[in-house]
Write a structure and sequence with these properties.
heterodimer, A: 391 residues, mainly alpha, two-stranded antiparallel ribbon, 4 strands, 71% helix, globular, B: 246 residues, alpha/beta, Rossmann fold, four-stranded antiparallel sheet, 10 helices, 10 strands
Chain lengths: 391, 246
């Protein structure tokens, strides 16, 4: 059956092949393989981009396939990052604290250790107490579960309330936008227990792997991101290939009609909303250790809107479209805003790309929406239809 | 003839306008029934109430041998209980193929997990084929349904209803916008379907109703004006006054 699935969906095979080749090529040219073509920081950018691709295909499933224009999916991405970040920060601080207390004449009591860790982590917000939310931060297993299930649970509860009341269209978009805004504002406060606007930092250091160089660590994370993207792509493609996919796309096109076919539309929407939120959480958990820091600004409403822009430019309703959009736009964004794009001197005015990139992106978005509603991915249709004509 | 659907004493109003007024209709288990009436007679509202889209202010809607009330069920539950509805405007999923449209409609478990994990039912292809043969769209199975002609879309929608294997089929103006030959074929499909289930057709077109050759219910201002064979109701003076006389 699996073979039949791959045969019926050659684009999945091509995608996985391309991803593998890309991973191997990047590995060969990485610093830890002794090459200097791809620096460690570029490697991290590439790894992060793969994570963004994963959250983009999740967005494509929820919007492009199921028609739910969620403007809050980046919140789930951020929650995943926070969940893994809590363990990373706790465990690393614990190692440092225990190391520094070892020289004391009296062995430190567990209380002293806890207080010392608390002071280290929460000193920036003027506290040393562990908030309740950190209760499981000592356990990697529990925090990994949190990466998946906290976004899942939030999406489930939110979706239940919204879909049950049959909130759809622009109203739902506004609600999801409000959700991510509320979450971000909440996290900005110092007393929420997640270090306010400082966020969680030092996430690039993995506890227990202090001896491993950043070059190697980055490569490992790059691999993990590639595997996660491949697995996520395969999972969504499998999910959408059969009858389930027919129903999901039918809900996008005419949900009332689907209801009269006897399908419980709300359950399907909830299923899609929750599953994609969980995948977004996983993507976030892989992204932030490579970024090194997460703070509430990451889940500001604009981030979720970017997500929509990627999917729209890449071409919604096709998984590889989302990947193309995420890669092209996020890499161009870091090129333009990173200062490496040459400024254009018009004589009277110097166009600085750091300022004008957003304008360019906005114009591209409008242009794509007006003239190429199928996005970059639509070009593949043109090519294949031309080939059919020639035959 | 035992009753499949019993609507009794139902009233429904929108902003004070009584769309349905103390309406009572009974439909048998295998019956072809035509419902006619002028615009605003409450034909569509009647269907809305039976399918759960509109809740009436008073009255009962009783279904099946176990006499369950449809008023406590939502649209998808009613559909699963065995009532299928065809809308006036053909609504098929235009971006999907005919095969995908029929597959979705086939009577099967309908929860997300069923769809994800029991996808390779061996008889799916045969059942899709049976439906497409019935509506004459077998050659178009792999076409996008958006590319079908108006008449073909109507048939596809009827086919999707048949695929659900409902016990009661509500069909809203199936012949609207069809050519003469298309109408003939539509009549055939409906008459054939009514051999094993109840089919209720709402229609304006008298010629079409005559060809169905079945019991007719005339609605006027939300309640039943006359009932019987087409010849019988067309001789009824009330019917002539409100409907045919125009």
């Amino acid at each position: 059956m699996e073979r039949a699935f791959i045969v019926k969906n050659p684009s999945v095979l091509w995608f996985l092949l391309g991803l593998s080749v890309f991973t191997i090529v990047v590995t060969i040219f990485s610093e830890s393989a002794g090459s200097s073509v791809i620096s460690t920081s570029s490697l991290k950018t590439l790894g992060k981009t793969l994570c963004l691709c994963l959250v983009a295909i999740a967005m494509d499933v929820v919007w492009g396939y199921c028609g739910i224009l969620s403007l809050g999916h980046f919140a789930f991405f951020g929650i995943g990052g926070y969940a893994i970040g809590m363990w990373l920060m706790y465990d690393r601080t614990k190692n440092i604290v225990i190391g520094s207390l070892e020289n004391n004449i009296m062995p430190p009591t567990p209380d002293e250790v806890t207080t010392a860790i608390g002071t280290q982590i929460f000193g920036v917000v003027g506290s040393s107490e562990f908030p309740l939310i950190w209760a499981f931060s000592h356990s990697l297993t529990l925090q990994l579960l949190a990466v998946v299930f906290v976004p899942g649970l939030l999406a489930l509860v939110f979706g239940c309330l919204a879909f049950r009341s049959r909130v759809t269209g622009v109203y739902l978009s506004i609600l999801t936008q409000a959700m991510t805004l509320a979450l971000s504002l909440y996290l900005f406060q110092n007393d929420t227990g997640l270090r306010g606007n400082n966020g969680l930092s030092g996430l690039q250091n993995i506890p227990g792997l202090e001896d491993v160089s950043q070059a190697t660590l980055s490569l490992w994370f790059f691999w993990a991101s590639a595997v996660a993207l491949g697995a996520g792509y395969l999972f969504f493609a499998w999910m959408l290939a059969g009858k389930f996919g027919f129903v999901i796309r039918a809900i996008r096109d005419d949900e009332t009609r689907v209801r009269f076919l006897g399908y419980h539309v709300e359950t399907y929407k909830l299923f899609i909303f929750t599953t994609t939120a969980m995948i977004a959480g996983i993507a976030g958990a892989l992204y932030y250790p490579q970024a090194g820091i997460i703070n509430p600004a990451e889940i500001a409403p604009i981030a979720s809107i970017y997500l929509v822009v990627w999917v729209a430019i890449g071409g919604r309703g096709r998984l590889y479209g989302a990947v193309i959009g995420a890669v092209v736009v996020s890499l161009m964004s870091s090129w333009f805003t990173g200062g490496s794009a040459p400024d254009i001197n018009l004589g009277i005015y110097i166009v600085k790309w750091t300022d004008w990139w957003l304008v360019l992106l906005g114009l591209t978005f409008v242009g794509v929406t007006l003239f190429f509603p199928k996005g970059i991915g639509g070009l593949f249709d043109l090519v294949s239809s031309r080939r059919e004509k020639q035959q | 003839m035992s009753t499949l659907l019993e609507v009794s004493g139902v009233s429904a109003s929108f902003d004070g306008f009584k769309a349905i007024n103390n309406l009572s209709i009974q439909i048998g288990k295998t019956e072809l029934r035509a419902i006619i009436g002028p615009n605003g007679a409450g034909k569509t509202t009647f269907m809305d109430i039976v399918t759960g889209k509109t809740k009436p202010d008073q009255g009962y809607v009783i279904w099946g041998e176990k006499s369950v009330s449809l008023l406590d069920m939502n649209e998808s539950q009613i559909a699963q209980a065995g009532i299928g509805r065809k809308f006036q405007k053909p609504t098929v999923f235009e971006e999907q193929t005919v095969r995908e449209n029929i597959t979705m409609a086939l009577k099967n478990p309908r929860s997300p997990l069923d769809l994800l994990f029991n996808r390779a039912a061996a008889d799916t292809e045969d059942r899709v084929r049976a439906v497409s043969d019935d509506i004459g769209l077998t050659d178009a199975l792999d076409q996008l349904s958006g590319g079908l002609s108006h008449g073909q879309k109507q048939w596809l929608e009827i086919g999707m209803l048949l695929a659900q294997d409902p016990r009661l089929l509500l069909v809203d103006e199936p012949a609207a916008g069809m050519s003469a030959t298309e109408r003939e074929q539509t009549t055939d499909i409906l008459v054939r379907a009514a051999k094993t289930r109840a089919v209720v057709v709402v229609e304006h077109d008298m010629e079409f109703v005559r060809r169905l050759n079945c019991k007719v219910t005339v609605l006027h201002q939300g309640s039943v004006l006359a009932e019987g064979s087409l010849d019988h109701v067309t001789k009824n003076q009330d019917v002539i006054d409100v409907y045919l006389g125009r």
